[in-house]
Each structure stands twice: as structure tokens, then as C-alpha cells.
Amino acid sequence: MRARKLQLDLDITEFCHMLKGHWILTAESGQVTEIRAGDSRVFPRGWKGVAEVVEAVKKVYMVVSQDSRESSRHVGQNQAGLEIAGSGPRN
Q1: Taken in order 58, 68, 9, 42, is the CA torsion positive or negative?
Q2: What pLDDT, in 10s, does the model give residues 41-50?
């Protein structure tokens, strides 16, 4: 698999736990963090940077929005082809 890069600019806080795969995260500040299966990470609201998908990623995640009364369960696939499952805002 060829590595894919996603530009991220988060308007939510997200906790994720990686079930499989490998990401290299480069924050706007230049800080580089690698996440692999078994690792957990909190992305604070306002985090900006690049996520490089080294191996296809499967993660569970929880999204914290400004309105904490909103919640739902999702399973989906984002535009980079990453398998995702988690909790997030309900419309």
C-alpha cells in the first residue's frame, strides 16, 4: 500500500484507539508522532497537521463536540479509505 496523506484541521476533540494499522502524525508545529495498533491518542480541538497513513487503519473513536448532549454511534469509511467506528455528534 502506498502511503496516503490527509490534511487535518479539527473543530472537535477526538479520542481514538488504533485497532490495526500505522499513522505518522505531523502537527503544524512540526512535532511528529507515530501511532500503531494498540496505541491511543487524544486530538484536541484545533489540532492541525498531516496524518500519513502508512498501513490501512482501523480505529475506534469518540468525538467530543461543543454540545456534550449530542452523541451517537457510527461505523463508516472516510475519504482516505480508513475503516472507522466510533461515537460522535447526532443530528
Answers
A1: negative
A2: 999 999 999 9
- Spatial separation of the C-alpha atoms in residues 8 and 54, rounded to whole Å: 16
Mean pLDDT of 4-23: 93
- Contacts with 80 (C-beta within 8 Å, 6 or more apart), sequence order: 4, 6, 53
Residue range 71-87: mean pLDDT, rounded: 44
* DSSP string across 59-77: EEEEEE-SSTT--EEEEEE
Asked if residue 3 lies in contact with residue 56, where contact means CB atoms within 8 angstroms, the answer is: no
Identify the CATH assignment for 4-88 out of 2.60.40.1260, 2.60.120.10, 3.30.70.100, 2.40.30.10: 2.60.120.10
Q: What CA–CA distance (Å, rounded) separates 83 from 59? A: 7
